[in-house]
């Protein structure tokens, strides 16, 4: 965006208010020159001739004597000579009485990540009063993983450098009740290498290998801590002749992997011209 283009200084979230009360929706902006503010409900301009709706001097919107029809998504638009920016909006819920928390945004119940990977999880709940929302691993609240500056009723965590599978739970709680959402994070480990590698034929230009696939080859396995996926190809590493000895041959099983049904696999190497 060009310098001076309108921007927003406040976050937008879910607002829960009771009938017949007053609510003020905030819209703090930046820009040069200072932008003009206009308001929309469900993408329709708000009729400011209605005495219940008032745009304040600072641009905020005040709604008086709330009724259930006031529910909806409220967005503010900031406009100056550089352009117009539309806010993400506040979702206003009008309630006649208090009610239990319920989730409005939850992550999938299961994720699979690679070792050392990262994962962001966001959970949002509403209620009257607005519930507190936190993430737990077992009984431990995930404070260090929690990201700051989230809207009320929202908790977001960032899981870094995952090395083992874990279960985490989003908990939304108020004096009206408590609700849970569980998420399983599975770290996808590498399957075991094949066993008993044999050199069955060798010449100046090629070599043939045979090996027995490991016992878990040929199927996809999953436990509470690991998961393995079917391997689609082999990896064979050439080693210069002067570096090859019996010890090197015995360690090659860690460099060649398979996951196939046959009990014996034979591979032909590609032709080499460098000895």
TrEMBL record:
Keywords: Cell membrane, Disulfide bond, Glycoprotein, Hydrolase, Immunoglobulin domain, Membrane, Protein phosphatase, Receptor, Repeat, Signal, Transmembrane, Transmembrane helix. The keyword Nucleotidyltransferase does not apply. InterPro entries: Ig-like_dom (IPR007110), Ig-like_dom_sf (IPR036179), Ig-like_fold (IPR013783), Ig_I-set (IPR013098), Ig_sub (IPR003599), Ig_sub2 (IPR003598). It is found in: Cell membrane; Membrane. GO terms for molecular function: cell-cell adhesion mediator activity; protein tyrosine phosphatase activity. The keyword rRNA-binding does not apply. GO terms for cellular component: axon; plasma membrane. It is a single-pass membrane protein. Belongs to the protein-tyrosine phosphatase family. Receptor class 2A subfamily. This is protein-tyrosine-phosphatase. It comes from Paragonimus heterotremus. The lineage of its organism: Eukaryota, Metazoa, Spiralia, Lophotrochozoa, Platyhelminthes.
